[in-house]
Structure prediction request, 118 residues.
Amino acid sequence: MSDTYIVETTAEVINPYKDGRSKDWNKLPTIPAGSRFIVGHSLYGAHGYAFEPIKSELTQRILAAAVKVEPQSVKELSEVHNCAWGGDEILRVLVKLGRVKPEDFAAVCAAVEANENF
Prediction:
């Protein structure tokens, strides 16, 4: 496992580097509570590619308002476990290893159909 980990903000963070012309998360006026980030040699928005150096003021504000959490998405799990494969390739290998069975696909479909907020 790498030294990369996931954090989630517990409070809104005021961004000292806001730029209303940019759509990147690291230029928003505020970072909402509940935002997830991948922390390693830099800080990445969990759903975007923009990053901040680990020693930047924005990163320090985010880390001060965040708690460490377990990875949830394929991207987060891949980063934390230093696995450079994409989700489709990871799933292919898991099926081949017998860790994911065909009936698991049916279970996923049924769960999502039963609960649209799944």
